[in-house]
């Protein structure tokens, strides 16, 4: 699933291509909206909200989409060959005189009244890259369930919107805590800096073509996707294990030396070369 910075970049591309222009082509390939015709209407703008995209259209309408794991929006110039995937994967086409935005494999696509956007995104917590960002509220949300593992709490978009699996692992590494530590067990100084650290990471990457949390081009990440390569700080092999509620488990990476707190027991879904964990920072 894309992170908030990826969705921000997608919104920026769509906004640049469509905002202020009249739609000359409209094709929503979802049965419920197959007869909807947006041609002749002006696109007012495209706004990201966490991991959601809101394309606002003249007449009080909003086209709401979510990329989830495989979705994407591609923008093509007039006459340019479409290369985002086979035609049967296209779910939406929004065309103007000089640009066409094509949505591929969109698992969520709905046309709603702009006044009803809260029905789609009202459940989200403060947006790390949005004008509604409120670090105090985000921290309050995270601490509402003190027994919940930190990694799961960070992924819950109701707490704060924009963190995906990559930033979850990277944030936990930078906090020197494992993703399985209960939120309430984090030292107060770590807890206090968490929202600000998350915001800085996403802001630093929202305009970059290649994400980096290390400040370097290579290696660009501290732990995510790096098992069993050595930790950049201590040289211990990075470990990976699934984390989730059983229905939505995701690969989670950590350094068993640099990060303190509980870790999963060795098993078929755990690639670990050390079972030790630190109890002090």
Automatic annotation (TrEMBL):
Domain of life: Bacteria
CDD domains: AcNei2_N (cd08971)
Domain Formamidopyrimidine-DNA glycosylase catalytic residue range list: 2-103
SUPFAM superfamilies named among the record's database cross-references: Glucocorticoid receptor-like (DNA-binding domain) (SSF57716), N-terminal domain of MutM-like DNA repair proteins (SSF81624), S13-like H2TH domain (SSF46946)
Catalytic activity: 2'-deoxyribonucleotide-(2'-deoxyribose 5'-phosphate)-2'-deoxyribonucleotide-DNA = a 3'-end 2'-deoxyribonucleotide-(2,3-dehydro-2,3-deoxyribose 5'-phosphate)-DNA + a 5'-end 5'-phospho-2'-deoxyribonucleoside-DNA + H(+)
Family matches, as SMART domains: Fapy_DNA_glyco, H2TH
Presence of the UniProt keyword Lyase in the record: yes
A Pfam family reported for this protein in Swiss-Prot or TrEMBL: Fapy_DNA_glyco
UniProt keyword terms in alphabetical order: DNA damage, DNA repair, DNA-binding, Glycosidase, Hydrolase, Lyase, Metal-binding, Multifunctional enzyme, Zinc, Zinc-finger
PANTHER family on file: ENDONUCLEASE 8
Similarity comment text for this entry: Belongs to the FPG family.
The protein's name in its UniProt record: DNA-(apurinic or apyrimidinic site) lyase
